[in-house]
Amino acid sequence: MEKLAELILIPSPAMGHVAQMLELAKLFFRQNHHLTITVLIMKLPDYIDAVSGPFVDSVAASSSSDRLRFVHLPAADPTPEWSSKTRGHFVYRLVQSQRSHIKDFLISQSSGNKLAGFVVDMLCTPLMDVADDFKIPSYVFFTSPAAFLGLMLHFQFLEDECQQDVSLFKNTDGSNLLSFPSYAYPVPPKVLPMVLVDRDTWRGRFLDFARGYRKAKGIIINTFAELEIHQLDAYKKNNCNISRSEQDQVPLPPIYPIGPILNRSKSKSESEEAEIKNWLDQQPTKSVVLICFGSQGSLPLDQVKQMALALDNSGCRFLWSLRQPPQSNNAQFPGEYTSYSEILPEGFLDRIEIKGKVVGWVPQLKVLSHEAIGGFVSHCGWN
User: Which pick of 56, 181, 191, 314 has the fewest CB atoms within 10 Å?
Assistant: First the structure.
């Protein structure tokens, strides 16, 4: 009997990343019956993020196939330095700490299935070095838009090949629009992603990520041509220009748009989901606005009160996902409030009892698919 090939997937532990990678694992699993999938799971401590860990556990528990397995890497031992900056810095340190554990895992699997490749999350490129040591090809799963991928690679080229400090873009006169290959139209400097123009974040993490993308055998991206025609064409033209030039440049890896990948797994208890669904079932078609700022989105108290006043005065029906900001740790993710009455204006919950509902985490795909939803106020995350 022919031995199956094994593909190893390594997601970043943050919710928006791990959910997409688990859906990618299911996609590979369904479309190739000669492939086994192993997902290496690294978890954030509960005091940092109380959402992603239970979510992964529920997905793993629901898997019944011996061709799709989940391996939990050893828990990390964070130092105070991990929490000294941002949650992104904490995740970066966590990923780096898993190198030796992944190496040990690969050694333990030497007599098993043939390893066909690594697929690492866009924020896990430091782990590609481990795959290189074992002569295993690495691919990157990019969970953001092709426009952002192109911008990262362009900024990395400016930094490494042109010795240009890209953080200076943020100081550009606001009246001057900036043009970039992967952006269809010029943009003002203030809309550039913070992680690319904040010098510490760019040079401390994202510059290395972008360098890793260039070393990959291919980049799998959660997008599709009909949505990002210009961005994907710009990527292909970049490679065409390199192949025609006389410069000693390595072409970019091939890109594979496979989106949209949507998180269809459960993220709340059945009773919590049922409560939200029952409320939506009572609302007229296309009458409710969903307000949700993603797994990392939260508002300070003064903005919560202003948002509440605006919703109260608008007269609109709404479902508001309201998350609690981190309380004591720079690296913490938003959590859940125990009581909304303490932070919202006096009488607000009574006044909006019929037309509005305030909740914590929401099953976003299910909510957006409900016929009662007619609008979406979002942080513009790719999910």
Answer: 191
CA 190 – CA 173 distance, rounded (Å): 10
Are the C-beta atoms of residues 209 and 125 closer than 8 Å to each other? yes
Instruction: State how far the Cα of 369 lies from the Cα of 235, in Å rounded to an integer.
Output: 32
Residues in contact with 70: Cβ distance below 8 Å, sequence separation at least 6, in sequence order: 38, 39, 41, 56, 59, 60, 63
Q: What is the pLDDT of residue 34?
A: 86
Report the C-alpha gap between 282 and 356 in whole angstroms. 11
Q: Token digits for 52?
A: 């992603």
First-residue to last-residue Cα distance in the chain: 41
Q: What is the pTM of this model?
A: 0.88
| 162-182: pLDDT as tens digits | 999 999 998 888 788 999 999
Q: Classify domain 5-257 by CATH number.
A: 3.40.50.2000
Please name the residues in contact with 44: beta carbons below 8 A apart, sequence gap of 6 or more: 13, 14, 52, 53, 90, 91, 94, 333
Which is it for the CA torsion 339, 343, 347, 348, positive or negative? Answer: negative
The segment(s) of the chain belonging to CATH 3.40.50.2000 are: 5-257, 270-378
Q: How far from 319 is each of 17, 303, 357, CA to CA, in Å?
A: 24, 17, 5
CA distance 346 to 329: 29
Q: What Å distances lie between residue 279 and 63, 343, 362, 372, CA to CA?
A: 31, 23, 13, 10
Give the whole-angstrom CA distance, residue 291 versus residue 367: 11
DSSP conformational letter for 297: -
Catalytically active residues are 17, 121
CATH superfamily for domain 270-378: Glycogen Phosphorylase B; (3.40.50.2000)
Neighbours of 340 (CB within 10 A): 16
Q: What is the mean pLDDT of the chain?
A: 89
> Which has the closest alpha carbon to 365: 12, 19, 14?
19
Owner of token pair 């943009």: 187
